[in-house]
Amino acid sequence: MPLFALVDGNSFYASCERAFRPDLIGRPIVVLSNNDGCVVARSAEAKALGIKGFVPFFEIRDMCERHGVAVFSSNYALYGDMSKRMMVVIGGWGIEQEVYSVDESFITLDGIPNLKDYATRLRADVLQRVGIPTCVGIGTTKTLAKLANHVGKKFPKAEGVFSWDWLTADWQDKLMARIEVGDVWGIGRRISEKLGTMGIHTALDLQRSDPREIKRSFNVVVERTVAELNGVNCLALEDVSPDKQQIIASRSFAELVGDFDTLASAISHHACRAAEKLRQQNSAARMVGVSICTNPFRERDSQYTGWIVIPLVHPSADSAVITHAALAGLRAIYRKGYRYKKAGVILTEIGPQGLEQRDLFVPLPDPRRAKVMAVMDRVNAEFGRGTLRLASEQLQRGWAMRQEQRSPRWTTHWEEIITVR
């Protein structure tokens, strides 16, 4: 029987900020969303102050000043690089590894003796080499490992490491009964509300439920969750993440935007970013969707939402082709007189490059374009994203994201590397 461990970074974004700032040890930290709008991450100290997640920052600004909370804008370059470093270290402790998210990784530990000591040394290694505190949950299924990780974080006596096998059956039931069903992996708010109407309120209730009734009321995914809670392994480790079937690049503006040129710059940037993601997974898209919308929370303003999908003659991952289609879509949906809050590009009908069906009556794309895109990707990978870009991305810069409190990109930009005096 396989044995899974779920290893994740504690308050990951906040921990990344603290890793390079020893003066922040013990100090509450919050990290804000794009444009410094809402709280997206909190350290344990910030949670102890009662700061909630995803609340608008202006509502807690005074509290942060009173309690000396360190406030940071999102620094995704830093977080992404720290994630890669952490996953490399974690992977060295597992037999197999699946990187599940930016701060979570499943590994298998089949046949490893003294798991308590092993997991404790794993945590110490990540902390020493990367600077990120972690928690390890161990179980015979991925769902049980994920739930064990929840226990390891919630109960201080676990000291960051927990396995269901360390408890007797009676104590496992008692602990399961203390965990709300909404804390089980894959059980969201709507499903947990419906489960509540069926008398299922805890993880133990779900574990003891009738799988056939669960399947009739929900779907096979929730049925598999019940099986996994009972130790039946239904979810194998994914060595390679599946290709995305939809790619979205969008962002809210720091300030409301009314003119077409500024919107066009934003749409061009998002189209290029989406095309880059396509090329990273060796895919091509046939449909390019474009959306723009005003701010629905400004009720005194006139409201408008525009959305259109532009089909491509040939599926493509070429930044110029996708941007051309996206700008054509923007011209079709743009309306003067409105102040827009958000714009985005969505790529759909995605498939592998080279396997798409061609149109017999339209000339094939110039094969040299793929080489141009490859060169652009290599240059941007070596010298930083945006080193080479389309001219249309630079028409206006009024749409750029607000990051007034961003920390230095310590690990990815030479000019911001840490200096030791």
UniProtKB/TrEMBL annotation:
InterPro entries tied to this protein: DNA/RNA_pol_sf (IPR043502), DNA_pol_Y-fam_little_finger (IPR017961), DNA_polymerase-Y (IPR050116), DUF4113 (IPR025188), Rev_trsase/Diguanyl_cyclase (IPR043128), UmuC (IPR001126)
Gene3D superfamilies: 3.30.70.270, 3.40.1170.60, 5' to 3' exonuclease, C-terminal subdomain (1.10.150.20)
The keyword Methyltransferase is assigned to this record: no
Pfam families reported in the protein's UniProt record: DUF4113, IMS, IMS_C
Domain UmuC: from-to ranges: 4-188
Keywords: DNA damage, DNA repair, SOS mutagenesis, SOS response
Membrane-crossing segments per the record: none
SUPFAM superfamilies according to UniProt: DNA/RNA polymerases
Keyword DNA damage among UniProt keywords: yes
Family to which this protein belongs: Belongs to the DNA polymerase type-Y family.
Protein name in the entry: DNA polymerase V subunit UmuC
Organism: Vogesella fluminis
